[in-house]
Design a protein that fits this description.
Layout lengths: L8 E6 L3 H13 L4 E6 L2 H8 L8 E4 L8 H9 L8 E6 L4 H9 L4 E4 L4 H14 L6
Parallel strand pairs: 1-2, 1-3, 3-4, 4-5
Helix pairs in contact: 2-3
């Protein structure tokens, strides 16, 4: 009988707030989602990480409001790079401005998810987000 190596989904989280980075990281650990997480503090750092082919993720989660290069600016740059433009990219943010949501979709976002503040809703949202994109391959 052949044994297959477990494949772990790779997620790149663009988030500038340390507390939110830790919150997401802890949530995926608690839920035992089996993903490899890389964190960038802003869009420029995210693009730099994506230049390394070993860190190409299955999914990118973007906070919209970041200093330096914000989420929409990152998205525009990402979608202009031919070998990166098809990476599933989700806005995971507290923003719920309809104009921002429209701008995200105009620039190729895969999905827009409002980040809940309630801990139980947050945990459930992260679980649904990861399972929807089929990243918890175990």
């Amino acid at each position: 009988m052949m044994k297959f190596e477990e494949k772990r989904g790779k997620v790149l989280l663009l988030e500038d707030v340390l507390l939110e980075q830790l919150r997401f990281q802890r949530t995926i650990e608690i839920l035992k989602l089996g993903i490899d997480l890389t964190i960038a503090n802003n869009g420029k750092e995210g693009i730099s990480l994506l230049k390394n082919e070993e860190t190409i993720p299955d999914l990118i989660l973007i906070d919209i409001n970041m200093p330096g290069q914000n989420g929409i600016e990152f998205l525009k740059e990402l979608k202009s790079i031919s070998h990166l433009k098809n990476i599933r990219t989700v806005a995971f943010t507290t923003s719920n401005d309809p104009q921002v949501i429209d701008m995200c979709y105009e620039n190729g976002i895969s999905s827009f998810i409002h980040k809940p503040m309630n801990p139980n809703q947050y945990k459930e949202t992260v679980k649904l987000l990861i399972t929807y994109w089929k990243l918890n391959i175990r």
